[in-house]
Specification:
The complex is a heterodimer.
Chain A lengths: L5 H39 L1 H12 E6 L6 E2 L5 E13 L7 H11 L4 H13 L6 E7 L1 H9 L7 E10 L6 H4 L2 E3 L2 H6 L12 E3 L2 H5 L1 H4 L4 E7 L5 E8 L7 E2 L4 H10 L5 E7 L5 E7 L5 H4 L4 H9 L8 H4 L9 H10 L9 E3 L2 E4 L2 E4 L7 E3 L1 H7 L2 H11 L1 H10 L21 H7 L6 H8 L9 H12 L3 E2 L13 H10 L7 H8 L2 E2 L4 H16 L18 E7 L6 H5 L14 E8 L6 E7 L5 H18 L1 H14 L1
Parallel strand pairs in A: 2-10
Antiparallel strand pairs in A: 1-8, 2-3, 3-4, 3-5, 6-7, 8-9, 11-12, 11-21, 13-16, 14-15, 17-18, 19-20, 20-21
Helix pairs in contact in A: 10-25, 14-16, 14-17, 14-23, 15-23, 16-19, 21-26
Chain B lengths: L4 H5 L3 H6 L3 H21 L6 H22 L2 H25 L1 E3 L2 E6 L4 E2 L1 H19 L9 H18 L4 H18 L3 H21 L2 H11 L10 H13 L10 H4 L11 H34 L3 H25 L17 H19 L7
Antiparallel strand pairs in B: 1-2, 2-3
Helix pairs in contact in B: 3-4, 3-13, 4-15, 5-6, 6-7, 6-8, 6-14, 6-15, 7-8, 8-14, 11-13, 13-14, 13-15, 14-15
The chains are: A alpha+beta, B mainly alpha.
Chain lengths: 644, 374
């Protein structure tokens, strides 16, 4: 081996020291580099990293707020909340899952299918994340679970709230709530901060219209969580705020009664206070079970709903479009009078049909009505009479009147499902169909056929505005107490109980806008409607009410689905002989009581055949019910007015 | 120039103890105490397994440190090759009898503890090369003939450790060996040439890397690449350190580590935990303590007469510096995550044993600074 000498040792020592000096310099640089990095992270950027650290640390769980309650005019709850009993399971707290499920099956009705589904779910999740074993238990099941809780490790009974409806009588106007969908989150801005898993939102009807306010403020629980997401401790809890409750102008009793009347029919009814536009009843049939939507819809039920030809999910009162048929004759007559096309006593001869440019226009009465004036024209609903006056009037003037009275635009605001309908005129046809107007189409329009499309609620508003003497009203369904139009009226009645109130006075009290040139014309039409319902030969005479308290004045209508062929006309085919889908829609509008009108009603029965035989009897019964409850309604108003 | 041998060999135990470098001893002790607090914090403020065994190990190996330092430096010089061979055999033993944990075979089961010979090899290689270059005359230093033995002594353990696989320790062992050769005066061109060869071999080496090792390097280059996967550790470590701020979140209040966001908090990320709880001021204190330790080792190297002692102290100081710096730069996101413990602070018996053994030899150099090794 080599043995180093002294000289060698010293040279080497110097070499080593020189190189060490270089290394030390490098080390110092690196050390300062590390200090620099520490300064950058811990001093310059510390705010950023503190935020990130808190983001790591805290996690928030949102709590679904309680929805506001929807009440009727008499404070009856139409949409309320009920406690919802659920059973959750935290898998990590269970020693033996299989044994637990066997035990649970003995207590609850859980299928084997569900058990295997839950087991798969457990495998996918973190062991401390709860799974929902049973949503919506009844009380006896829930108390049973609580009774055996000591032997069910990991099972947690949970009480929350869910929407509930007393019955299905107002399903369409109230709408329903259901789980938030991805599309809702995209399209509805107010849901941005509200997305809570398992929360329900309004999908249709009032639930949808009021959703933003009725939904409430989301609460949250802030937890400190560890890296795997397990909650360590609760830091903060905010229970949120229940949504605003709303009172509607609806009468639950009338809703139930009407709903029962319309059972098995495809129909719609709308009842309105003719002075303040309060909607007393709005029913569409057939109805559906709104409670079925709250906890996730059963597929079978959903399929039965969408396959039903009577379309139970459609709110026919607002989104059903029907040709107004002969009910429009009230407006045609009014328009002709207002435009001074005719005088009430002017007559035409009805021979059952007229001919125009080679085209035949039939009256529903094949043998004709003979000499017809305005009153008789409306009473008998003589088509020929209205062919004649609408030809003179022209469709543009008719459409002006129709629009003034509320046709062709939505009656209530903010209802996604409400439709506008169509009030045709020459411009409209040019714009939407791209063709010129034919005079023959004016004749069809004059009896409410052709392009005319209206919703039952529009027909009701039209009737109400005729009934109140021709004044514009703004229909409403939400009763907001600050805008109680009845205040002056009720005050007046309280002070002068024996005074008879005439229309003029009411109108001044209610600050309405006249829709007429000459109010006499309105009264002529109202009188004609009276004769139609209460004088022999009138189209709804059979269903009149003789008690003056209930006496109504109305107008029938039948809107054609399919054009009658000449052969059918010759053979005098009756509506009831046609197949269901080919029958006319039956319509009826009315106001009551005739002497001192308070309410307007519209009834549409799809494929009902004729308005006189199908729609009028329903209107008759509903009117009676509404008027019987009128004193209660006034009383409720007074007490409310007093309490303000 | 030479002191009479009799004077020093007649040193009593008292003299030996008095001639120790107490700044170094106290610095090591303070760092040890700090590491216990840090470990106590990783256990969530309780004396659990990690804390207890860390405390025990520190004291056991701290005593070993004294024992090693009291043995003559000449003994360590003489036994250097033997020590290296012993450590190498242990490494070979790992290959055949080793314990496998999370995919790598690094440990030998010695009943009292699980020994990680690769940690010991960090010191063993330095000892071996220090002796080799101590004995090599300056003029032979750069002849190819005399490069063969150090190269073999360097590469053989590296291959064993790299195939365990343990990339971090491989790099750290290599760094120590290269430092000795460089300090001894091996010409820069040899390092340049081997560097070039290494770079040309890099693609081949990359193909041998495990997928997780590749992903760590890619992740280092862009930590946001996979924030929940491989980049997670770097991001969470930076969050923990950054959120510590100037004075930290307070002892036992490091939410990042307490809530398990921090990976490997006992071992590689112990500095992160400390930094989160004690902030910039704490981190700086640790850095200063390490700087004191390193500068004292260099100072002892300066005082030692023998080139063996100088080479050893300088190399060990540099290697120690590299261990500290690599670990810190790693947790600060300046280097890819490779397993590298922080000397004394990190949990791990073998690392503690190797560091204390290495420091003991340094202290032996101090006590016997004036005695030539041969």
């Amino acid at each position: 081996m080599l043995s180093p000498g002294t000289g060698n040792r010293v040279t080497k020592s110097k070499l080593i020291s020189r190189r060490m000096f270089l290394l030390t310099a490098a080390k110092t640089v690196v050390m300062f580099g590390i200090v620099g990095r520490l300064i950058s992270l811990q001093i310059n950027q510390t705010t950023k990293y503190k935020t990130l650290s808190d983001k790591n640390r805290f996690r928030e769980w949102k709590l679904a707020p309680e929805r506001g309650i929807i009440r009727d005019f008499f404070d009856q709850e139409l949409a309320s909340n009920e406690p919802l009993y659920q059973v959750h399971l935290v898998p990590e707290n269970t020693k033996n899952l299989n044994q637990l499920f066997v035990r649970l099956k003995g207590i609850l009705k859980i299928t084997d299918q569900k058990v295997s589904y839950l087991k798969r779910l457990i495998k996918k999740q973190k062991p401390w994340e709860p799974i929902v074993i049973s949503d919506n238990l009844n009380w006896s099941e829930f108390s049973k679970i609580n009774l055996f809780l000591h032997e069910l490790d990991g099972v947690e009974p949970i009480v929350s709230v869910a929407r509930t409806y007393p019955d299905n009588s107002s399903a369409h106007i109230l709408g329903y709530v259901s789980q938030i969908s991805a599309k809702d989150l995209r399209t509805k801005k107010y849901l941005k901060d509200l997305s809570v898993p398992g929360m329900t939102i309004g999908k249709t009807g009032l639930e949808r219209k009021l959703d933003e306010k009725i939904i409430g403020k989301v609460g949250f629980q802030r937890y400190e969580v560890n890296a795997s997401g397990k909650r360590i401790k609760e830091i903060q809890i905010d229970k949120g705020q229940a949504g605003t409750s709303f009172k509607t102008t609806l009468d639950y009793e009338v809703q139930k009664y009407t709903n029962e009347l319309l059972k098995d029919k495809a129909a719609a009814v709308c009842v309105m206070d003719i002075y303040n536009g309060d909607i007393v009843s709005l029913v569409s049939a057939p109805t559906f079970e709104p409670n079925a939507f709250v906890h996730g819809l059963d597929k079978k039920y959903w399929n039965s709903l969408i396959r039903d030809g009577k379309k139970p999910l459609t709110n026919k009162a607002m989104s059903g479009l029907y040709p107004p048929g002969s009910t429009i004759k009230t407006l045609v007559a009014l328009s002709a009078l207002e435009n001074e096309i005719i005088k009430p006593q002017d007559t035409f001869r009805c021979k059952g049909k007229i001919e125009l440019h080679g085209e035949k226009f039939h009256c529903w009465e094949k043998k004709g009505h003979g000499i017809v004036n305005l009153r008789k024209g409306i009473q008998r609903s003589c088509d020929v009479y209205f062919y004649e006056i609408s030809r003179k009037l022209g469709v543009d003037r008719l459409s002006e009147t129709a629009k003034k009275f509320g046709l062709g635009k939505p009656v209530l605001s903010d209802f996604a499902e409400e439709r506008s309908g169509v009030v045709p005129n020459t411009k409209w046809k040019k714009k939407f169909i791209g063709q010129n107007w034919y005079i023959g189409e004016t004749l069809h329009s004059g009896i409410g056929q052709g392009y005319f499309q209206s919703t039952p609620i529009q027909l009701c508003l039209m009737t109400a505005q005729l009934a109140n003497g021709g004044y514009k009203i703004k229909p409403r369904i939400i009763f907001d107490e600050e805008k109680n139009d009845l205040k002056d009226y009720s005050d007046f009645i309280l002070k002068n109980p024996n005074e008879t109130i005439d229309t003029d006075m009411l109108i001044k009290r209610f600050n309405l806008n006249p829709l007429f040139e000459n109010q006499k014309n309105i009264n002529i039409v109202k009188d004609a409607m009276y004769s139609s319902s209460n004088e022999p030969g009138g189209t709804s005479y059979r269903h009149r009410m003789e008690n003056p308290k209930f006496t109504f004045a109305g107008k029938t209508g039948s809107s054609q689905i399919k054009r009658f062929t000449e052969a059918q006309r010759e053979a005098e085919v009756k509506q009831k002989d046609l197949s269901y889908k080919d029958r006319d829609h039956a319509l009826f509008i009315a106001f009551a009581p005739y002497k001192n009108p308070k309410y307007a009603i519209s009834v549409v029965v799809e494929h009902g055949g004729s308005g006189g035989s199908e729609a009028a009897p329903i209107a008759q019964k509903v009117i009676k019910k509404v008027l019987e409850r009128d004193s209660l309604r006034q009383k409720a108003s007074f007490s409310r007015v007093e309490s303000i | 120039m030479l002191q009479p041998r009799s004077i020093q060999s007649s040193m009593g135990l008292k003299d030996k103890i008095f001639s120790m470098d107490y700044v170094l001893v106290i610095s090591i002790f303070i760092l040890g105490i700090i590491s216990m607090f840090a470990m106590y914090s990783t256990d969530g403020g309780e004396f659990k397994y990690h804390t207890n065994s860390h405390i025990l190990r520190f004291f056991v190996f701290f005593v070993c440190f004294f024992v090693v330092s009291l043995i003559k430096i000449r003994f360590w010089h003489d036994q250097s090759y033997l020590i290296y061979i012993l450590f190498f055999l242990l490494l070979l033993g790992v290959k055949y009898f080793g314990l496998t944990s999370s995919g790598s075979k690094r440990w030998l089961d010695l009943y009292v503890m699980n020994l990680q010979p690769s940690e010991l090899m960090k010191v063993g290689l330095i000892l071996f090369l220090a002796k080799y270059y101590h004995r090599l005359p300056v003029d032979s230093m750069n002849s190819i003939r005399y490069l063969v033995i150090p190269l073999v002594a360097l590469v053989a353990p590296l291959l064993l450790v790299a195939t365990q696989p343990d990339l971090g320790t491989t790099i750290l062992i290599a760094a120590g060996g290269i430092v000795v050769a460089w300090l001894a005066g091996v010409k820069v061109k040899f390092f340049a040439i081997s560097g070039l060869i290494l770079i040309t071999l890099l693609p081949v080496a990359v193909s041998f890397l495990k997928p997780y090792q590749k992903s760590r390097i890619l992740t280092f280059l862009n930590p946001e690449r996979d924030p929940l996967g491989a980049g997670y550790q770097i991001i969470q470590s930076k969050i923990a350190i950054g959120s510590g701020g100037l004075f930290g979140k307070g002892f036992l209040n490091g939410s990042q580590s307490y809530l398990d966001y921090l990976p490997e908090k006992h071992t590689d990320f112990i500095f992160t935990l400390f930094s989160e709880e004690f902030g910039f001021s704490g981190s700086l204190s640790i850095l200063i303590l390490y700087s004191i330790i390193i500068s004292r080792i260099i100072k002892i190297g300066n005082q030692t007469r023998s080139n063996f002692g100088k080479l050893y102290c300088y190399s060990f100081a540099t290697a120690f510096f590299i261990y500290v710096v690599v670990n810190m730069m790693m947790v600060l996101g300046l280097l890819p995550i490779v397993g590298s413990p922080l000397p004394i602070m990190s949990y791990g018996g073998s690392s503690m044993m190797a560091i204390m053994f290495g420091l003991g030899i340094v202290m032996s150099c101090k006590i016997y600074k004036d005695i030539p090794v041969n």
